[in-house]
UniProtKB/TrEMBL annotation:
Family matches, as SUPFAM superfamilies: ADP-ribosylation (SSF56399)
Function: Removes the 2'-phosphate from RNA via an intermediate in which the phosphate is ADP-ribosylated by NAD followed by a presumed transesterification to release the RNA and generate ADP-ribose 1''-2''-cyclic phosphate (APPR>P). May function as an ADP-ribosylase.
UniProt keyword annotations, A-Z: NAD, Transferase
Documented EC number(s): 2.7.1.-
PANTHER family: PUTATIVE PHOSPHOTRANSFERASE, TRNA 2'-PHOSPHOTRANSFERASE 1
Superkingdom: Bacteria
Name of a matching Pfam family: PTS_2-RNA
UniProt protein name: Probable RNA 2'-phosphotransferase
Similarity remark: Belongs to the KptA/TPT1 family.
UniProt KW NAD keyword: yes
Amino acid sequence: MDDRRTVRVSKYLSRHLRHQPERIGLSPDAGGWVEIDALIAAAAAHGFRFSREELDHVVVANDKQRFAIEGRRIRASQGHSIEVDLGLPPATPPAYLYHGTVAAHLDAIRAQGLRPMTRHAVHLSADRETATRVGARRGRPVVLAVDAGAMHHDGHVFHVSANGVWLTAAVPPRYLRFPGAR
């Protein structure tokens, strides 16, 4: 399977497991899981064919481990805009986590903090390198440090997904450290 096909299948899976399952007639359970055979059949019925082998390749080869397979079911690891309960237990975060963004969003972030927008949680990275890659998807990246230790101490709840993405409901501005700020 070539890289272009891998990306194409991955994007299709993201769209239909995270955001629009109903578009192809899928009904994920409360945890976001769908039967793999039903997914493959629904995709084919809507003009996008892929094999179980291609699906397995995408799940294993995805550098961000966006998908999880459990038995004969699959789901996206996080990033849903549909209602799901990933069943992740609360976790104690490291002292600092990181968020990649672009300069165009900084004024809003300074005023309102980090909000989940269309997702269920704010996504944070455990290291600056990952946050830089995330921010670079939208342009020249800006990495913000999040005082996760202080947030946790103040009662904010964190979860960590199967692929290592840290999730929290929101990050108020007082917990953010902007580049160049003292």
